[in-house]
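User: Can you fold this complex?
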Amino acid sequence: MSPPGSSRVVRLSVNGEPRETIVAENETLLEVLRERLRLTGTKHGCELGECGACTVLVDGDQKLSCLLLATEVEGAAIVTVEGLASGPDLHPLQDAFMELGASQCGYCTAGMLMSAKALLDENDEPTEGEIRDALSGNVCRCTGYASIVDAVGVAAARLRGER
Amino acid sequence: MSAGPEAWAGRRLGAGPGGDDEPGAAFRVVGKALPRVDGVQKVTGATIYADDIELPGMLACVLLRSPHPHARIRSVDATAARSLPGVTAVLTSEDLPIRFGPLPISQDEEVLASAKVRYVGDPVAAVAARDEPTARAACKLIEVDYEVLATVGSIEEALEVPVDEPIHGDTEIGNIHRFVALEFGDVDEGFALADHVREDVLFYEGSNHLAMEEHSATAVFAGDQLTLWSSTQAPHNVHRVLSKVLELPMGHVRVVATPHGGGFGGKVDPFAHEVAVAKLAMVTGRPVKCTLTREEVFYNHRGRHPVLMWVRTGATRDGKITAMHFRTALDGGAYASLGVATTHYTGALQTATYAIPAYRFEGARVFTNKATCGPKRGHGVPQPRFGLEIHLDKLADDLAIDPVVLRQQNFVKPYTRTVNGLRITSSGLEEVTEKVVAASAFRRRPRPVGHGQGFAVSAYLCGAGFPMYLNRMPHSEVNLKVDRGGVTVFCGATDIGQGSDTVLATLVAEELGLARGDVRVVTADTGLTPVDLGSYSSRVTFMAGNAAIDAARKMRAILVDAVASRGGQPGAAVRVGDGGIGEVSFEEAVALAEEARGTISTSGSYAPPKGISGRFRGSGVGPSPAFTFTAAVVDLDADPLTGEVRVNKVFVAHDIGRILNPVLVRGQVDGSVYMALGEALMEEQSYRKGLHHHPSVLEYKTPLALDMPAIETILVETIDPEGPYGAKEVGQGPMLPVVPAVVSAIHDALGVWIDEVPVTPDKVLRALDQRAKGGEGRVGPRRFPDIPYPPCTKVSPDAATASL
Ligand code: FES
Ligand code: FES
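Assistant: Here's the predicted assembly.
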């Protein structure tokens, strides 16, 4: 995309699908997801690693896609918000976000969901403090975080088969 | 002064479906905790926000912005930029000579600056290129010859004689943009009646909305039709501005507000980038998009005005207010924006909570070489509310009266008119106060040093009573289409995340006896939807909601009539509900009506009733068809060693009229409390010599998930006689009392007054240090500057209460 710098082909697995795309050396994973692969569910609020809106999973780890070059994640398995539901069935986190109003304008939601997913993959019974900690890199200006924290707790309980 | 609800003009819509006034009319959809109508798209990433739009052949637009706070432009040379490969067009001021602004009286903005720049970030040129990096590279090639002028960096500097020249050429006195000077009742006499008079000076710092979505707009020009998709809160405003600046008839311009990534007032004004992409689309014949960077959003701003306040109140020994004199000075930044309204708002609602028998307000907004301030959640009200509530706490201290009791003694009663002419109708002020005090056990337990509780109340509008430009047309309009294809509501209202689409679907479903999912909503598209003035002043539920009910009741009557005439029964015998009309299903009823009348559609509209304001110059800002009332108690710990404040819990009681959807209501209350805590303790849009201190998400401090306390919300339903099913607003009111309650709680905890927000740890420590050295233990502005306010317009009680 940018005039200087060379381009090359990068292979990624995105939401379980193998993808191959030409990228510039200086292109971020965020740009590749949104602009080359047209997966616009992942958002940006700064492109400087400061807001968390662009959070995705890279080989299972919570990462800010605006801080990674696409070339750095060659071969990695990326999961974005588009990869959370299975067909029409929402992930329990998505269900809980919806029910509890944890997504208002929804702009932080993709990042929040991916941070929450990374947490629940590691810890299936997080305390409120652990949830708040896991989401502390994601800025939300609408909700005051309360409904988001509640939703993650509810989803965790459901994933454990409790509710 | 008090009268029953019936005495108040205004259209009475009835509390239940179909205008049913029976108590306990059962609701099917209203009040249910249903998820928002766009919930699935939002949690799956399917929602298409403004910057997600990608059109074939689309060009990227970048604006070249001023690096200087204040400078004359000697010349702009874009030759080199134009010849850079990949650049399609470069615009400068000659291409867009017509000025604009959100209010008719303040058309002071240029899309691209011609003769001078007035803040860091003022747009000078616009480039369209094949991609953003190319457009940025082209911007670097544009040569602008600036003659740098002295920077006006503060209210104080703006009040001095300009060093070089005033920021704007048309101000009468230096850099003073606007004065307001009004007096209601006999203020001198009021002070003469007082046993005690107190004065305070306070300051409220400015802040940015920091909506997570950066502004973005995309334009297409085809044939003679312009279409703009933009993350705007008020597509109608943008529509009018595009028509004016581009000299296109309104009917040739379509503005679509895309799903919003947060507004909070930051996307109410029309912006240069919206006009620039439209013009570039016209010039190039290709789609053009501009998405601002986060840094540019800080320069675009239109955020909270920094306000310096002086307040003087007289009271009797037992705490009855006899007179109040309130002065404000607003740092407006570079342009007018909605600042005239903001200035009025800093003086308009003090009287909505306290029955002040004589009131004088003097306000002044000044221009400075900083990003333009405008409307942010609460628009001009949080600052004076903070000042007033802290001042009353101190007055209560002086008089040795409990701060809650002092306030209660002066509360405005429901169904009264204030001294400045505001019509007050339903009010839960007494009740929210009692409930929040009880829930928090306010100051009833012994508190160790460092632990404190603060209390405050507030009032807010359910929509501005007057439009931004003078006209007598409705404020909100709805079309309702019902046919064999389904039910669709069309309305210009803009869902900025608050859930207004959900509210519209809820109200129409309730009226027509349908499930909410059976009602489709199409909003905020000036090409398809009738006019709604926009998402500001907490107007949408009240105004668009009433318009929707109006349209739905007309539709209901048509369907009932079709069913009744088939069965030969009177319409009154036909029951509507549970997906049926009388004996037949809803679909059958629609078919009957379509058979009988052809296409059926109804429309509804809402305009505030007459008589909600006084009749004097300036009476247009402040009145509203209804007000909400909120009380809050903040419980916190303040560390005397570090100055850090840890909020434990916020109790909020809010008079909401009626709860239409508890999920949405919670979101608005939580979000309001959150934003208030940010402004009370952290957020500041501050500058050094015209340069923004920290235009980034990292350095512009906001509360994160770890910082937020528990919130206990108490909702009081007063069932407003004119609200949609009695509902009032909840998006802004609940933030207002929280800021002063934080400051009051810090005083309760440590005995020091921090008379300016945000209260950062260094201010707390300075106040403690000062007190330890025998000082007063106060941090805040020392004095209020001498401002050459004009003589007050004395508004007689008759004019204040005369109906317009
Ligand atoms: S866009 Fe990546 S952290 Fe903000
Ligand atoms: S829901 Fe709007 S920013 Fe989080």
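The first strand of chain B starts at residue 59 and ends at 65. The radius of gyration of chain B is 27 Å.
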